[in-house]
Amino acid sequence: MANIKWDSKSYTSNFSFVYEYGQEVMDLLDSKPGMTVVDLGCGNGHLTKLLSDKGMEVIGIDESEEMLVLARKSYPQIRFICADATSFTVGKKVDAIFSNAVFHWIDNQDDLIRNIVEQLKEGGQLVCEFGGYGNTELIHATLEKEFHKRGLQYSRNFYFPTIGEYTSRLEAHGLQVKYATLFDRPTKQVGEDGLANWIRMFNMLPFQGLEKVVQEHIIQCAVDELRPMLYKEGNWYADYVRIRIKAVK
């Protein structure tokens, strides 16, 4: 089960880098026209459409009905299903499961991987990218410090593994890892409020239960402290680290 709720309108307008970078991940797929692919955590369907354009039968899966409303409106010719990543099924085994910027939001990784293996044909591919070890650590460490100053507990609601940790996990469930890399990717944000908006989009769970004025004060203090590190040549950057993997059943 994913541990985040989405603002689909803001996601599409201000955070297009999520699916734009996902196009690079597609290159790891051994794709053939007619093969069946699940886009797991498809969001607004942009990458699902690109996979479909390659001649594959693609099914988009996402737990956010808000995102799927947008996906179905934009790409009515594609099948989209609202389902949990740890328990989805499409009624048949598939040739590949593709996922971009999703797995770090999943609470139960073993259930996720177990279900992926269950849905794949023998020889089927898993191709994915998500947050790896150290992802946005500057942002989270700064927010954590601001919380502690106020006597508040800062919860980290995500999973950013090392290569060794995650590839071992995949192998334990019967997947053979063919490719894995961990790399820094400082990621430009939109506008002068880019970092604050990033926090409001991707990291509001730790703020639950706090008054709005307290939330905004913490965000502003964190932004001020991070400016020397993450504001460069008139642009905000998030200190992303990504893990990219290809594995075969």
Automatic annotation (TrEMBL):
<dbReference type="InterPro" id="IPR029063">
    <property type="entry name" value="SAM-dependent_MTases_sf"/>
</dbReference>
<keyword id="KW-0808">Transferase</keyword>
<keyword id="KW-0489">Methyltransferase</keyword>
<protein>
    <submittedName>
        <fullName>Trans-aconitate methyltransferase</fullName>
    </submittedName>
</protein>
<dbReference type="GO" id="GO:0032259">
    <property type="term" value="P:methylation"/>
</dbReference>
<dbReference type="Pfam" id="PF08241">
    <property type="entry name" value="Methyltransf_11"/>
</dbReference>
<feature type="domain" description="Methyltransferase type 11">
    <location>
        <begin position="38"/>
        <end position="128"/>
    </location>
</feature>
<dbReference type="InterPro" id="IPR013216">
    <property type="entry name" value="Methyltransf_11"/>
</dbReference>
<dbReference type="GO" id="GO:0008757">
    <property type="term" value="F:S-adenosylmethionine-dependent methyltransferase activity"/>
</dbReference>
